[in-house]
Amino acid sequence: MKWIGINSTSDTSLADITSVVAGTGLSGGGTTGDVTLNVNVNHDSLAGFVAAEHIDWAGASAGTIHATNYTNTVYTHPNHTGAVTSTADGATVIAAAVVEEGNLRISNTPVDGKFLSAQSGNAGGLTWATPPDTTPTLSNVNALDITEVGTISSGVWNGDTISTDYIADQAITSGKLGGTLSGVINANTAKVGLPSSVSTTEAGYLDGVTSAIQTQLNAKQNQIEAGNRLNANVIGANGNVGNSEFGYLDGVTSSIQTQLNAKATTATTYSYQYIHFFSISDNDDDWAVPHANGWVAYNNKWNTDVGSSTTTIGDTVTLNRSVAMSGFIVPHDDAVLVGFYAMVRNNDNDNQSHVGLFHNTYANVGAKTGTSDTWTLQAYGAGDKTGGSGNSYMGPCESKDMTRSLALAAGDMIVPAVMEETANKIYFNITVVIKTPIF
Q1: Tell me, what's the pLDDT at 357?
Q2: Going from the N-terminus, what domains does the chain have, and what CATH number goes with each?
């Protein structure tokens, strides 16, 4: 390594530095490696230094030139004139109207009638291009903001509506308005007026109209009068009241509902039919019904045993047709079986009696073939020995069931039956009660 500033080629008296011993301003050591050296150099001590020919490097006089052959004159660039100008060596400016076509950088060769178009992808960013329409009409410029319009001598306006501010007074002829208004154009002034039959007030009624007047009128209801009445089914929310029903309002003088509320509910009137049966019986333990042969001599006994002693309402027994025909037939609909009342005279000590009613419908009896039918017990009452009790009692027994409410239809049949506890005679009188409406 050589000292910087020493010409090691011409100065051979100085050898290379082969080792460094650290000291003030010096760090490092040995024969190899980096060496850091802090050196303050006084240029007056430099080799070849000429006191009268130098520039101060630092200090208060830094930049001062000490030389007779040097000056510190600052160069000033002259101003440009002509097509390109500048002031005080500032930016250059191209004068107006001095750049010719040949000086422009354009991507293609100019042709008469073309215009310069910005084309960023072409060389220079400019291109001679063909105008979109070399013979434009007003329809091509309808998007422009036209603030002043002169006189249009020819052509057809195809753009947006022209404000009336740009139309001269009395400049529109009847031919431009169409045949519908030709009859109301003043021939002298060419102004549009109203027909003689339309007043200014009447014309003002058009204000607010949003669609064809006649179409709106056709959709309206004609005037309601004696010869053109509304149908009742178009009145109200659902149209379920007809003209006849609506006519029933004629003569009403006050609220119908109020009048109805003040009326009492009409009650159905009923009559009570009392059917009487009387006879004797000596049947034991089972129900006995009338004999079909009538009430002659001994045959008037109720000794036809039905073979059942049931006393539960709703239970059934089987009766021969010949026996059933001795019962009572209901004459019309809407009848109701209410019950029965019976008085029985015992012919034996402590012989208690029972009375019941069996029921069947016309569909199961009168309208069927066969010899027997199934009947249902619909009323039952046990004897009440009201006259006494005990083995010596031979007085009357009262049997009744007046809590029935069995609906009956025309043709239904009721057959009474009696039952005694011992096989001895009993004498009885039965009254069956049926309620029927009065029509």
Answers
A1: 92
A2: 1-77 (no CATH), 270-437 (2.60.120)
